[in-house]
From TrEMBL:
PANTHER family, A to Z: D-3-PHOSPHOGLYCERATE DEHYDROGENASE, FORMATE DEHYDROGENASE 1
Protein name: phosphoglycerate dehydrogenase
Database matches in InterPro entries: D-isomer_2_OHA_DH_cat_dom, D-isomer_DH_CS1, D-isomer_DH_NAD-bd, NAD(P)-bd_dom_sf
Catalysed conversion reaction: (2R)-3-phosphoglycerate + NAD(+) = 3-phosphooxypyruvate + NADH + H(+)
Class of the enzyme per the UniProt entry, highest EC level: oxidoreductase
E.C. numbers: 1.1.1.95
Protein family: Belongs to the D-isomer specific 2-hydroxyacid dehydrogenase family.
GO molecular function: NAD binding; phosphoglycerate dehydrogenase activity
Native organism: Dicentrarchus labrax (European seabass)
Domain D-isomer specific 2-hydroxyacid dehydrogenase NAD-binding: residue ranges: 112-285
Known partners and oligomeric status: Homotetramer.
UniProt superkingdom: Eukaryota
Length: 348
């Protein structure tokens, strides 16, 4: 690939210091500025060739349109739903992510929420802090022998499956791209969502947020589930419709929810978070030392590879790494024929 000149990079969120160090070692000037207001970003973005973000910076079309010199948007993490990939592609800006860097951390948090839901750990801990000793109220249920439905059998879905199988859970799942024989080799039986909903004691979602996954769990699909099903969302707010979830919790159709992500972050609407059967975290899936070190390092190395004209290999390992692979190739190779990556993916 022809080298791409990147002299200055803005890091707009808390990214591991290795990111800055690697970029600077390679002669790239780095500015770190957190909590920038949208107008500030619009005013300053023209000064940079590269932008490194996590999930909090909303890289909207108006920011991209003001980014006269931007060549790359690097997402130190997985989801790129906070980046207007379409607008970036039209402007010839490459969008890259580091999708495998936080897989294990997100999978481990998902398992922690599943276990916490089964044994009411956060509620019991809170009750103890309040001076109580309530052994009856927090009666739980074993995970052993229960059915876990995994919607989205990519990197994280696969890691969740193997961990929860070790607890004796039966794992079933659905994914429009991962072949059933592949997921079967990791012990996940694939089936249609219609078949999956009524069988699950627990459901966890691990899809990207895109039009086809918004509200995957809604009033209609909750009604198809077992009464008392427990759900976990460590993927993106909105994959489980929040208003439908409140209604399902109120009616008892949903017996509990473990949520790491929300439509609005931080959420202003408190009815979900305050519900006694909801346990929640402030988007902590990738918040481990290890995940942050990997993501910060990976994104810096990927940028340096581009500066040096190297082919992007990095974490690219399967068709599921669609943002890294396709955005890279479509902007570098098919610049004359920009395609909407999300549409392309959802029609695969
Ligand atoms: N909470 C966190 O901090 C955290 C951390 C890492 C990743 N995530 C999020 O987790 C999600 C999954 O990440 P990943 O690395 O496993 O991604 P991945 O690309 O490896 O897997 C996603 C899978 O979802 C499948 N999929 C797409 N549309 C679907 C649909 N309609 N129904 C069922 N499956 C569908 C894809 O085929 C793919 O296999 C992303 O949204 C990501 O942003 C959150
Ligand atoms: O998609 C991701 O990588 C996760 O949601 C993590 O987001 P964060 O980098 O803002 O923690």
């Amino acid at each position: 690939m022809a080298p791409i000149s990147i002299k200055s990079v803005l890091i707009s969120e808390s990214v591991d210091p290795r990111c800055r160090a690697i970029l600077e070692e390679n002669g790239i000037r780095v500015t770190e500025k957190q909590n920038m207001k949208k107008d500030e970003l619009i005013a300053e973005i023209k000064d940079y060739d590269g932008l490194v973000v996590r999930s909090a910076t909303k890289v909207t079309a108006d920011i991209i349109n003001a980014a006269d010199n931007l060549k790359i948007i690097g997402r130190a993490g997985t989801g790129v739903d906070n980046v207007d990939v379409d607008a970036a592609t039209k402007k010839g800006i490459i969008v890259m992510n580091t999708p495998s860097g936080n897989t294990i951390s997100a999978a481990e948090l998902t398992c922690a929420l599943l276990m916490s839901l089964s044994r009411n750990v956060p509620q019991a801990a809170m009750s103890m802090k309040q001076g109580n000793w309530d052994r009856k109220k927090f009666m739980g249920a074993e995970l052993f022998g229960k059915v876990l439905g995994i919607v989205g059998l990519g990197r994280i879905g696969k890691e969740v499956a193997s961990r929860m199988q070790s607890f004796g859970m039966r794992t079933i799942g659905y994914d429009p791209i991962t072949p059933p024989e592949v997921s079967a080799s990791w012990g996940v039986e694939q089936m249609s969502l219609e078949q999956l909903w009524p069988q699950c004691d627990y459901i966890t979602v691990h899809t990207p947020l895109m039009p086809s996954t918004v509200g995957l769990l809604n009033d209609e699909t909750f009604a198809k589930c077992k009464k008392g099903v427990k759900v976990v969302n460590c993927a993106r707010g909105g994959i489980i419709d929040e208003a439908a979830l409140v209604r399902a919790l109120e009616s008892g159709q949903c017996g509990g929810a473990g949520l790491d992500v929300f439509v609005e972050e931080p959420p202003k609407e408190r009815s979900l978070i305050n519900h006694p059967n909801v346990i929640s975290c402030p988007h902590l899936g990738a918040s481990t030392k290890e995940a942050q070190a990997r993501c910060g390092e990976d994104i810096a190395l990927q940028i340096v590879d581009m500066v040096q004209g190297k082919k992007l290999v990095g974490a690219v390992s399967s068709t599921q790494n669609y943002f890294s692979v396709l955005c890279y190739y479509k902007t570098c190779i098919s610049k004359d024929k920009p395609q909407n990556i999300i549409q392309l993916f959802s029609t695969c």
